[in-house]
Amino acid sequence: MMQERTRLSIWILILLGVMMGYFSGLFGVGGGIVLVPMLMLFGVDQRIAAGTSTAAILPTAVVGTVTYGLTGHVDWIAAALIAVGMIVGAQLGTYLLARLPRAALFWGFLGFLAVVAVSLWLVVPQRDAEIELNVWLGAALVAVGVLTGILSGLMGVGGGIVVVPVLMFFFGASDLVAKGTSLAMMVPGSISGTIGNARRRNVDLRMAAIIGVTACVASPLGTWTAQSITPFVSNVAFSVLLAFAAWQLVQKHLKSRRAAA
């Protein structure tokens, strides 16, 4: 028996698309960390919300990648290496989901977010910094993709929230290159996820289309804002996003524990 779908007003979907697109362009993330809880707030089932977000991210990520790419702020090789690792990592994440202690992983990941959020206030990347690739760094980027994919499978978080700070702090990328590269590596993952969700009927294509198209219009504005503000202001804003993501994860964790009690 198919579950009843919540049908939202087109104006609500447009508003959500504007929010998602702007945050995607500004931070180099998919925007799902904002979109999924907002859809759930309006009564959309969590699985449908997640699947719809994944589908809506695809056009947004493409537009964001092109916008950052036109200004030379995408490392295409790094994006491809991370994407390859994410494909493997996502499969490992779903495999380990039922086998690893979720509580330890959950609090460990929250600790990681806290360290990154504090570091964003202390370490400011240079605007002209780039990733200088070699064989070892290439292998490390694949490993980052694997780890990001695992975390995505285990925690349900998007890759950008991990990849952007990692590229800045460990690979010497500027904030703009990190964001542009993050958006580029999301494209293949979004395609794969959307196909899987469509097969399981965990996506509302009407909502995804309206949100995605609207987000494409708002994404360049977010990118323009990212290029207009200083790296320090960008870091501070990203730390606020990480705090919001951590809060969302804690709420989800507490809710699941109450349901299991």
Total strands: the figure is 0
Count of helical regions: 10
Which ranges are low-confidence, i.e. pLDDT below 50, for 5 or more consecutive residues? none
CA radius of gyration: 17 Å
pLDDT averaged residue by residue: 86
What is the string of SSEs from the N terminus onward?
A: HHHHHHHHHH
Main beta sheet:
none
Helix content: over 70%
What global shape is seen? globular
The class by helix and strand makeup works out as: mainly alpha
In terms of DSSP E residues, the strand content is under 5%
Task: State the end-to-end CA separation.
Answer: 27 Å
Structure description:
- This protein has 261 residues and is mainly alpha-helical.
- Helix content is 79%, strand content 0%.
- It has helices at residues 10-27, 32-41, 46-70, 76-96, 102-122, 135-155, 160-170, 175-199, 205-228, 231-260.
